[in-house]
Amino acid sequence: MTHEERRKNTRVLFHTTASVCFGGEVCEQLTIRNLSLKGMYIDGITNHSAGERCEIQLFLSGAGSELKLSMKGEVVRVDVGGMVVHFNELDIDTFFHLKNIIYYNAADPDKLVDDLLVATSPDGSFVE
Asked: Which member of 21, 49, 74, 115 has the lowest number of beta carbons within 10 Å of its beta carbon?
């Protein structure tokens, strides 16, 4: 089974920029390679370790506006090209923006519905 096949959440290629803060160190204008409801791959940043916590700001630009999504996360993997961050805290507005980004960029949007069903508890709240 390849790494791709073990993924539990729909990932989409989505190129945008982010700012990531590790304690007092802020890394700006980072390129995002892909995105899911639970995390993202950040290109070019390799000087951090799995387990480090961070705060993320994802920047979305439109024709006449810019939107900033904020979340907290943890580094889960670092390789020669960058790192993977798992989201462990985000507000409901950020969740809905991520859901829409992934839905409209997914090869199989129906798979996202399955991901959402797995990610919700019986009372309907979003859980890790």
From this structure: 49
Length of the chain: 128
Residue with tokens 């705060």: 55
Mean pLDDT over 65-91 rounds to: 93
Residue 5 has pLDDT above 70, yes or no: no
- Are the beta carbons of 33 and 45 closer than 8 angstroms? no
Query: Which one of 3.40.50.1010, 3.40.50.720, 2.40.10.220, 2.60.40.1120 gives the CATH number of domain 3-113?
Result: 2.40.10.220
* DSSP count for the chain of H helices, then E strands: 3, 6
Backbone angles phi, psi at 55, to 5 degrees: -115, 135
Distance CA 66, CA 17 (A): 12
The pLDDT value given to residue 116: 56
Q: Which amino acid is at 128?
A: E
The Cα angle at residue 51 between residues 47 and 53, in degrees rounded to 5? 80
pLDDT digits (tens, 9 = 90+) for 12-43: 778 888 999 998 899 999 999 999 888 999 99
Structure tokens at 72: 């907290």
**Residue keyed to tokens 């993997």:** 77
